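User: I've been trying to design a sequence by hand for this structure and keep getting stuck. Would you show me what you'd pick, starting by listing the structure so we're on the same page?

Assistant: Good idea, let's start from the same input. This is the structure you sent:
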């Protein structure tokens, strides 16, 4: 398994890896050094890749990438400058990691699967816990542009035209690393170079496993046959002991509101003050989470409890609502817990999950973090914590998701291809 991305992406990879290991496979996860402990503590083998996605996404470079994401030309220039040298090292290391493998599961943004499968003559699978931007569909908005409101509800011909435009932008994005990829193919793997479309076709030809629930986001009907939606891949860690005083805080009053933004960092904005003021305005208590995009510890308040880390599986069912960035696994944890979501997307696929939870009636309309104010967040908290219909729908969807076994389904599909 060749993995990168945020902690949520790695949690999903490790969860699927544990499922494959339980089915009798020896699983090695090739990823960055900060995730070595995560991999090893779950009984999987580890191969070190250069780079540090945690420092990238939590630093100024990660913020700059997210801000430039809506402009493909700016993204191309940025990625070539900042990520090009890393990509060269990554390609070499991925080949070393995969040499003795019988199958490869790779994060599709890394683009190595088709070439390694061709060289080693073994099956390869794209693996992600979100819908990929380079798979054509008229059912989902674009990752690459901030779409006009409700693009997916446009008349089909206009929707399809928009989708073709964004698909072309995705091809431009992959063009960033094509020269480096082809140099690696020629000099290291002894394979012929590929054009942009040949490389895209090679990627599309591989089976893809998507670790999200069709109950939350139905599989687009116009996706390729080999693009599978399996259900979520939850990494159910042992809960251990919660931070001192947290259980007493939760039991001391009405269920609190969780507020945390995972690996997302805001430029020049102190979202902690926004969160605390919103809780005050809404008359609610809150649990604020640190993480990569840390909400800072402020002066002690009876109505607010700060934690550096905590199991979502343990915490979310005890909350009245969950305020988060809309990452796939945080959204999944909120849905599985059966509590309403308030999504403040920072970028990437997060708007998709924010819109979908609102569409399903298990959350409010997404509040983009760049425009987030204490007043807007307070109103969203009031709605999410008092709307009985929303609470009921969240409870029903949570029960449905808890009945699914996405890991078992993904392993079953893997065996259909890799025999």
């Amino acid at each position: 398994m060749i993995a990168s991305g945020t902690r949520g992406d790695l949690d999903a990879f490790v969860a699927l890896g544990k499922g494959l290991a339980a089915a009798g496979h020896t699983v090695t996860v090739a990823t960055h050094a900060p995730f070595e402990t995560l991999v090893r503590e779950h009984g999987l083998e580890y191969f070190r890749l250069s780079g540090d996605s945690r420092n990238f996404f939590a630093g100024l470079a990660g913020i700059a990438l997210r801000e430039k994401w809506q402009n493909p030309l700016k993204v191309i220039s940025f990625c070539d400058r900042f990520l090009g040298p890393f990509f060269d090292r990554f390609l070499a290391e991925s080949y070393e990691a995969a040499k003795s493998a019988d199958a490869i599961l790779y994060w599709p943004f890394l683009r190595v699967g088709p070439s390694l499968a061709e060289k080693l003559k073994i099956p390869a699978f794209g693996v992600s816990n979100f819908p990929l931007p380079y798979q054509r569909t008229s059912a989902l908005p674009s990752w690459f542009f901030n779409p006009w409101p409700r693009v997916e509800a446009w008349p089909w011909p206009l929707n399809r035209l928009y989708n073709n435009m964004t698909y072309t932008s995705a091809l431009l994005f992959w063009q960033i690393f094509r020269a480096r990829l082809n140099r690696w193919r020629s000099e290291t793997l002894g394979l012929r170079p590929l054009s942009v479309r040949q490389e895209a076709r090679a990627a599309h030809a591989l089976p893809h496993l998507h670790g999200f629930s069709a109950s939350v986001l139905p599989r687009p009907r116009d996706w390729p046959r080999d693009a599978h939606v399996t259900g979520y891949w939850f990494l159910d860690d042992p809960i251990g002991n919660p931070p001192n005083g947290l259980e007493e805080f939760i039991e001391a009053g009405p269920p609190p509101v969780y507020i945390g933004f995972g690996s997302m960092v805001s430029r020049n904005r102190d979202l902690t003050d926004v969160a605390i003021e919103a809780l005050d305005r809404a008359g609610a208590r809150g649990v604020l989470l640190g993480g990569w995009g840390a909400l800072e510890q402020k002066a002690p308040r009876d109505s607010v409890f700060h934690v550096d880390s905590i199991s979502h599986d343990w915490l979310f069912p005890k909350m009245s609502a969950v305020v988060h960035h809309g990452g796939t696994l945080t959204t999944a944890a909120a849905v599985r817990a059966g509590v309403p979501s308030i999504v403040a997307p920072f970028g990437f696929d997060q708007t998709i999950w924010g819109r979908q939870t609102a569409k399903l009636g298990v959350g409010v309309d997404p509040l983009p973090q760049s425009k987030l104010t204490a007043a807007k967040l307070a109103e969203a908290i009031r709605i999410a914590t008092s709307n009985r219909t929303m609470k009921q729908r969240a409870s029903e969807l949570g029960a449905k998701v808890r009945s699914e076994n996405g890991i078992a389904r993904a392993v079953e599909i893997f065996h259909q291809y890799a025999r």
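That's my pick for every position. To get oriented when you compare it with your attempt: Residues 76 and 173 are 6 Å apart (CA to CA). The chain has a mean pLDDT of 85.
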